[in-house]
Amino acid sequence: MFFDRPESGELAVLVHLNLSHGQDAEDPREFEELVLSAGGDPVAFLTGSRVVPTAKFLISTGKLQELQQLVADNGAELVIFNHTLTPSQERNLERELQCRVLDRTGLILDIFAQRARTFEGKLQVELAQLRHSATRLIRGWTHLERQKGGIGLRGPGETQLETDRRLLRNRIVQIEQRLEKVRSQREQGRRSRQRAAIPTVSLVGYTNAGKSTLFNRITGADVYAENKLFATLDPTMRRIELSDIGAVVLADTVGFISHLPHRLVEAFKATLEEASNSTLLLHVIDSAAEERLRNIEQVELVLEEIGAADLPQLRVYNKVDLLADTGPHIDRDEAGKPVAVWLSAQTGEGCELLSQAISEVLGKEVIHGCLVVAPNQGRLRAMLYAQQAVVSENYRDDGASLLQVRVPKDDLLRILSAEAVAFESLLWDESGILPDNPVAQE
Asked: Which family does it belong to (predicted)?
């Protein structure tokens, strides 16, 4: 961006090392999927093991010579490491290999740049890219140095590197200010939903677990969904109706990945706040993935980083159609409360179980019975209809309405408060609910 680097292309040599220095090992298969998702064309895969990476190249000199041979034999224009490289390691490798070198963070940033479609998403990607580039400006544009000696060559005292850094800092500040406005707008939307008592349910999970497919299945939306990593980058929200709950806002979020770069979490704070302020998290899991337990652990780590680890969570094991011995069902705890749902978003099997489980988890105390409404309580009757609490209606000889109602107790109390009517003063038809014993269902 601000410095001279070799030209890049699509033919790539992939490098993966098994480093035994206490860190979680990266998955080489996931690494290859990331490269393919970015549009790369892997022509060779170099693997190796080291106890401690070298400071200059990360790999040993022997592996460097092997890598040089692979680049030359395959005409590769790009070498991608499944690890985080320091700026000096990137420069040293590019000097030796004479081609572009990219690390895992740079690869994920490139995928994000391709996927961003909204103005907010593009700003967040640019912010992450600028922060990533800030450490890689050294030795850039030295031929335009503005601080030189000699008559006619003395500049204003600012080196080109300092100019680059100043411009980059200014642009970062501008983007952060714009994203702060986005964050404020999202916060206003959340406050409006809270005032209207509309719960928010967010889909979270490892990338390519099937969140967008499930979102489309539940809401009938047409969100972009494809079998590739990070197919979804921009958050999407839809309003749905659930029995006994009413209106619920469902949010589809960006997928997580192991060792998600911290600067990406920071840049996408405005988006991830939607998940951290949810009423319920649906943790979507690829039940057919061999590394299922590892993926669950990585998602939990990211949720902890964004402050969402303590939120109520319902696990959704997706892709049961790929399992031979498991069908759609609900797992419950000792108290009978749903803790996991097994389904297939692709075929639709078990999706009705998810709606049932969400209703049970979010379920409030529900009043269900036959309410007697006097002729002079027309406003109360109208407000119950507006709340969609009336199942059916009949009339008594004295003109009173018999309303078969099913309504969350909180909503009923709010309506009664607006009409200055005490809950204890309500009359219930003896054939439905006794006046002194209204039925409340959990």
From this structure: Belongs to the TRAFAC class OBG-HflX-like GTPase superfamily. HflX GTPase family.
